[in-house]
Design a protein that fits this description.
The structure is a homotetramer.
Chain A: E1 4-9, H1 14-24, E2 29-35, H2 44-47, E3 60-61, E4 73-76, H3 84-89, E5 94-97, H4 107-114, E6 128-129, H5 132-139, E7 144-146, H6 150-164, E8 168-179, H7 194-197, E9 202-203, H8 211-223, E10 230-235, E11 242-250, H9 256-267, E12 273-275, E13 293-299, E14 305-312, H10 316-330
Parallel strand pairs in A: 1-2, 1-4, 2-3, 4-5, 5-7, 6-7, 8-10, 12-13
Antiparallel strand pairs in A: 8-11, 9-10, 11-14, 13-14
Helix pairs in contact in A: 1-10, 6-8
């Protein structure tokens, strides 16, 4: 088989860099172009010293320099808003966008939460929301795939099977989320400095994080009715990893064990989603650097409530890994190809 | 004024050591004896190298070697169960216990959660639950004060004023708690190893942590009815600090702003409890090493819900600092004496 | 006694903030003014949330707004070059400068290493190099004290007694230094981001760190001849703390134990410098948050060599704590006043 | 090609677990048996939750239960002394030992440093010291390969080409080494607890670390004369990674640039050893999780001295990765097979 030729737009961010790391391990991929307008001309190893051994990667270039006619798949790793116009224009190569631009179906909701009009509202309807485990039938022919945000990925893997079965109440979902700092990107903000984060834990964007409407959109689809969820992210002193502890109210007649059974059945054959043995809490160290998600369900002390807990690596299953998983499905490749690496621990 | 002569039982644990650190800074205290049976004969600096400059501290000794007749206040920093019998026998010196032994009013509840019969059930009724800000009237004459657990301290400071005012619903309280590793003590368990904790976040004791009944006991007292709370602690890669994000349902007619007002009024004159400016989330770095608690209230996205967030240093306000604060009140000293140090940041 | 009225210029940096933290604990000090030109008008608690409980501190102001006539001591915590001109003009209040501006005696050396002409060369000769343990006779009448850099503080405490006794060879001193990130300041540089530092260790400024000429100047004074030292700093994933492992060649006839004896004698009565028991390696956790320095000497495997190891808190003994220690000496106060706090561990 | 059937003895330690992680990614390897006597019967996922997705690995078993007749290569990942007797007896399968047992050529030196008589001195002579880049000619026929210790790996990659060329003086080598905590193993010691290590840096085993004689043995071979090196390891708050900053004295006539040229030439075609661009300091984040080593040379401020700096991942190139690299060479496989993964950053 010929290798798939990919272009990565935004290779100078954490997401883009981790996509390159994973693509290097993918036997079916050739990295054809690396876009990073502000760093055009530099080598990846210049801005990402962990690629010191990979000085043969294509040099960073401006988007306009890429010959998209010779590219099969474009990965958009740009900040929201920055790449949508470009990506929306691309006809020939299929697009997998890792930004927030094509996740929300409503241009109004996008404008409300992101503060700018949507750059390409006409593409929203056909864009496929790429939570792979729930998107496979739509991926085969997709021209534009919007990869879920990292928090929504963990939340939806934990909740969608329960919502579809109506085993939990839509009105009473409280998501407490923990994330490593790589989720905040490589931007020079005081809140990302080592000294501010180390030996510290703090919530942020309380009550107004942009992943809220995305979680709600997909839960609403599963429930068949509008949903408003409580979602509170916290920043922790670690590089990678995301853990969500979700308190849910059981639907009338449902028991905690039913939730376990629903997840067990739904994910029995999934290569990347794993229900842990009863009583074992998920932890981010179980998935570091890998495309896996670990899940579990616990009784809550409040009657008729349960806790559903999920952990992923925010940069892999929460971002670049899922993007490659989507690519594999889009191209008819084995879904796990290039993503088999076991987690890195310690 | 003569200095208060104190004895610390359990000076070889983190709690005992931090009590010694704080007592050294207290101008009204003389450290008369340091109990640590397994390390008897050693110097504090031998087992706690950060006391290298304090080689004049009394040597560690067995409990039986202490002349309690020449001690004014005994601080119990032993693991639960280990010191209760000794402490219960002590008549003359007043006792401030930092273990879990005298916090629960019911010997049955104690036996249920700690797995052993209570060693001195006859002392439970008179023991004062020492959440200082709510215990002052009872501290002046107290012979035995039970300092709250670290998690209950933050949870109750956040919730008690709301419960007393019936501004929130008792049936719908979900506490998500984050803690540094010092909360787990200096015991040699795999889960406390650096490599297991660093670059990791994980919940533990899900649905069955021993601080649950303690929180419920005090909330029930405030609400005037039994309460079952959801409480899920998580271990984080940091030494000190505790943060609790608490989702509550508002009582009929109550608004989010009412919660802020209740906390603002209740703590307006408190030296150690601070409602932050609207919109500023509490963080553990704001209180590290100090006896302060920072609080705030946020609207939740779910209608009729709110988020109450609190941060403390688990070893200070959550343990040894509060113990000294209680001592100050018991002895009629200025309540902040020896506890004025500002937090250590970075 | 009346309280000493101090002004802190540069209260928006880590050094300035830690000076404020320490000054708040000093019973003889009143904080009269806090300069921070770019943040003028803000409160300390706005930019340093760990001062949430200290909203009564003076507001931040521009230097020009300070009435220096009502100030006894000015602490300069500005970046090098930024404050020298101002400080050099001040006649009335005595100045303790924590920047690099008045440490080097030679304006040429300053220009070589800092890349700009010295802003006030006429003040260099009279400025006292404030390594307190070696500067006491000169501090009483000093108008301008230059506090040593953090690395030089640890290096000189370890080496000066050995150099003065000619127990080591001046030509063969190799200093390997480790530092927490607070040493790099609160500036928004990629290299200070959490993600770049966590799970990482790396040398920086190899062969050209600005603390080199300062160490050499003071060693040369002690040896009575010019010295060139090897000095390699490394950045570590921690907030505070500095450790230096120094390989030295013994002078003819000197033995490793002689070095121990020299340090033991020199520091026997020092309140802040401690030779550890034989065989105990210094560690930064022994001094965190305190003004202490711990030292030790070990045989090296190479014949006629030894290892001298020192640890300090870079922001306290390495900066703000030593500045207050100098102030105490300058004013005839007890030298340890306000600096007695034991280290914070964990 | 048939897959190579491997057995891993000591799969319950960090080294063994990381070997399993790497072996899972190696297309030519089948994991036939996993020895871990104290955990026999358990699954890897039970003791290493990051293998949650790999529940099909062979169960842990006692050494005696392994059918070595059906194994091609045995990897010894046991503590020193524990496995030597077993490994020494094995005739049929070839052995790659990751312990210290077969590294030293002299049984006397082993007894001196490890405190016990060597368990199989008759095997020492034929054992190949497996620093791959220097051992290839001997690996093809080796029956027993002793993988170097983690510190010696970095030190020797940095120094051997310089020693062989006599560009540096054997009498003046000072190695300052930094290591993450995984190097200390998963043993329950106070010094490995999170709280003791976080926010701390400290040297250990000063002047008496067991990797000293190993470094000296190999340097002596290269120099053709006995060598005594200064070697001081420090423990840092990070999981993985090792950095060595080595001060050397140049041989008469040699210049710093000669050292760079020697390393450049020696490693020009090496897939895993990389001389960085001039002026770029090595950092552990450049190699995390990978089999790469990054190197550089800097002028020292002392005349006729230089600094050689190297970084590796202690568990990969410093242990399990190098073991697989050796296996590839022993079996005539492409040397990089299964080891191509790029470093994990962040």
């Amino acid at each position: 088989m010929d290798r798939v030729r990919i272009a990565v737009l935004g290779a100078s961010g954490y997401t883009g860099a981790d996509l390159v790391r994973l693509a290097l391990a993918h036997p079916g991929v050739e990295i054809a172009a690396l876009g990073a307008s502000q760093k055009a001309g530099a080598k990846m190893a210049d801005i990402w010293p962990h690629f010191a051994a990979h000085r043969d990667l294509p040099p960073l270039c401006r988007t306009g320099e890429i010959d998209f006619g010779r590219v099969d798949i474009v990965f958009g790793c740009l900040p929201h808003g920055a790449g949508a116009a470009v990506l929306a224009e691309l006809a020939a190569p299929r697009v997998i966008d890792l930004s927030a631009d094509f996740r929300l179906k409503s241009a109004e909701t996008y404008a409300d939460w992101y503060g700018v009009p949507h750059p390409a509202p006409e593409r929203l309807e056909a864009a496929v929301y790429g939570l792979t485990e729930f998107a496979r039938p739509h991926l085969a022919d997709a021209r534009l795939v919007a990869c879920p945000g990292c928090y929504p990925t963990a939340a939806l893997l934990a909740l969608l099977p329960l919502a579809e079965a109506r085993a939990i109440e839509p009105a009473d979902i409280a998501i407490f989320a923990l994330s490593g700092v790589s989720g905040a990107g490589r931007s020079l903000r005081e809140s990302n400095l080592f000294v501010e984060v180390a030996e510290a834990a703090a919530p942020y964007s309380v009550g107004r994080h942009r992943h809220m409407p995305e979680i709600e959109q997909e839960l609403a689809r599963a429930f068949g009715e509008p949903v408003a969820v409580s979602f509170t992210p916290h920043l922790l002193p670690m590089n990678r990893g995301e853990l969500e502890t979700i308190a849910v109210r059981l639907a009338p007649g449902a028991r905690v064990d039913d939730l376990r059974q629903l997840l067990a059945r739904r994910y029995a054959d999934e290569p990347f989603v794993h229900l842990l043995p009863e009583g074992t809490p998920p932890a981010t160290r179980m998935v570091r650097g890998s495309n896996h998600c670990v899940l579990n369900v616990f009784p809550d002390r409040r009657p008729s409530h349960a806790l559903v807990i999920a952990a992923i690596d925010n940069l892999v299953k929460g971002s670049s890994g899922q993007a490659l998983q989507n690519m594999n499905v889009m191209l008819g490749l084995p879904e796990t190809l290039g993503l088999e690496a076991a987690p890195l621990f310690p």
